[in-house]
């Protein structure tokens, strides 16, 4: 019996990610976990999150699937594009992401060196990029490799994707979906599709329009499972679990008093 897990929108919250991953069993080599992207931007540990997932991926190459989200694409675009968006240097959550790759001393040294100069924003941005690339070359090589792969993972039963697909294309969705849809689609869709679609990107609270879904998985009663738990507000990163034998979906909720996890079915 194999199990498929899915987790999304970690957004630099390392401790919450580790806590949620306690519910994932990779000792059974038939089991898989799909990371749906948005590893960075939000919490203070984006770099640490990436290193952990990279190591997990390398240790369980056939079991760990890594997809990119729109925030990961923005980060890579900033690092490698010739067109620089200086606004990222002064806005959250991007600045938290940059800081996570450098020590406080390294970060301050760059600003102290270049900020007084003419065109300082451009020079600071370029210096930050070079410092991050030099210090984390292997990590960025791994992340760039992911960026060259498909933005979705498909099984006989499901489509796992960060933001969604062009559902009106039906069984031609792989060819009909614009590339940006996979990581940027908005608004969310609900209703029937011929495969189950497991998605992050948009808060489950927003789609359900019910506050009680904060930090939880939302199933629309048809074919869509939304698993972005808005970790910055809920403190929780939901994990969706699919049993390939029973074909049932479940997730995990943490007892607020005792701090213990309990598994609950979400497809009811």
Automatic annotation (TrEMBL):
Protein name (database record): Bis(5'-nucleosyl)-tetraphosphatase [symmetrical]
InterPro entries to which the protein is assigned, alphabetical: Ap4A_hydrolase (IPR050126), Calcineurin-like_PHP (IPR004843), Metallo-depent_PP-like (IPR029052), Ser/Thr-sp_prot-phosphatase (IPR006186)
GO MF terms held by the record: bis(5'-nucleosyl)-tetraphosphatase (symmetrical) activity; phosphatase activity
Domain Calcineurin-like phosphoesterase: 3-139
Pfam families (UniProt xref): Metallophos (PF00149)
GO CC annotation terms, alphabetical: cytoplasm
PANTHER family documented for this protein: METALLOPHOSPHOESTERASE (PTHR42850), ZINC-DEPENDENT ENDOPOLYPHOSPHATASE (PTHR42850:SF4)
GO process terms (BP): RNA decapping
SUPFAM superfamilies: Metallo-dependent phosphatases
């Amino acid at each position: 019996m194999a199990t498929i897990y899915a987790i999304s929108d970690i957004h630099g919250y390392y401790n919450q990610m580790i806590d949620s991953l306690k519910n994932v069993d990779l000792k059974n080599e038939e089991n898989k976990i799909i990371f749906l992207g948005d590893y960075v931007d939000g919490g203070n540990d984006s770099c640490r999150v990436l290193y952990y997932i990279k190591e997990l991926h390398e240790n369980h190459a056939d079991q760990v699937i890594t997809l990119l989200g729109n925030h990961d694409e923005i980060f890579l675009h900033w690092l490698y594009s010739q067109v620089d968006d200086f606004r990222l240097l002064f806005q959250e959550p991007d600045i938290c992401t940059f800081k996570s790759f450098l020590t406080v001393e390294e970060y301050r040294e760059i600003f102290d060196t270049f900020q007084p100069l003419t065109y300082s924003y451009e020079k600071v941005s370029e210096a930050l990029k070079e410092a991050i690339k030099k210090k984390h070359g292997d990590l960025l090589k791994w992340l760039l490799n992911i960026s060259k792969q498909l933005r979705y993972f498909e099984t006989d039963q499901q489509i796992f994707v960060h933001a969604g697909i062009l559902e009106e294309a039906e069984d031609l969705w792989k060819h009909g979906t614009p590339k940006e849809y996979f990581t940027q689609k908005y608004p969310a869709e609900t209703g029937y599709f011929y495969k189950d679609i497991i998605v992050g990107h948009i808060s489950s609270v927003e789609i359900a329009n019910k506050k009680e879904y904060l930090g939880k998985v939302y199933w629309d009663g048809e074919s869509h499972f939304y698993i972005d738990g808005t970790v910055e507000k809920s403190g929780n990163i939901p994990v969706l679990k699919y049993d390939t034998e029973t074909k049932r979906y479940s997730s995990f909720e943490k007892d607020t008093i005792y701090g213990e996890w309990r598994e609950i079915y979400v497809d009811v």
